Amino acid sequence: MKIGNFDLNKDGVYIIAELSANHSSNIQIAKESIKTAKEIGANAIKLQTYTADTLTLNSNKDDFIIKGGTLWDGRSLYELYQEAYTPWEWHKELFEYANKLSIDIFSTPFDKSAVDFLEQFEPIAYKIASFEITDYELIRYTASKKRPMIISTGVASIQEIQDVVDICKSEGNDKIVLLKCTSAYPAPLGEANLKTIPNLRETFGVEVGFSDHTLGITAPIVATTLGAKVIEKHFILDKSIGGADADFSLDKEEFAQMVKAVRDTEMLLGKVDYSMSEKKIKSRQFARSLYVSKDIKKGERFTNENIKSVRPGYGLHPKYFKDILGKKAVKDLSFATALKWEYFDK
What we know:
By secondary structure, the chain is an alpha/beta fold. The protein is 32% helix and 15% strand.
């Protein structure tokens, strides 16, 4: 499966820098964030396309006040989203800027009007946020555009995940990536349950990844070892910018460290390989082999006392030790001579 020109089966882990609200309502900060994300190795920058009115109602009733131990407790949903949204009039300039820099750019639409708006930019993919996974009509409409669907599963039941996979496929769209996600901000390590990542692939038969809200960079590394093909992490130029997502975002240095760690992890994982490479063959000089451990006269038999399995590896393979015992030497052999087949009778 490809996201843009990136082949998830050949090109490694696709790393997304989630800009979200980390622009402080300043388009220049947004553009500098895109430029920096490119410089530190992200494959893509991701926006969020909504307004407070497309997400919620302007109400201060208790239902609309955030609670439950989040960073935003006590604020109304409308107030939070009004502060955090990315102005729609920025999108054209941000898409053009990212394209000029050759970094992928796409967005999370939160309603059908956002999908319609984003289509003009021909995004390489769409991201569905965890809290929108139950909006089946939004998913159906987005999937109908036939672009890759990257779907966070943070608050979904297993049946709901199956439902959205089926919905995408019913629209003729099987380009699906399911992201393991813990919808807490920040997410405790003990609630990450990253073993779910390979199970998502096995259960639903699609590509898988990880949308990370934990602090630090350990979780993306572990996710990579478990087969995540996509890593999404909130990115901020500098935490002094502040904002709704700053506390659980990585700054420039941290994000660069994460990218390097993920790439190093990919290199370490490599591939299944039992081949005898030139380097491996050369290293066998330090392996054990059979040597004369005591001077042997012509006609003398090989015994436990005069041959031994030792380093280095220039003699016969140790597996032939018992085959050689009892045979006679066909010539004098001095101490520390590497054994060869021609040194004993047949």
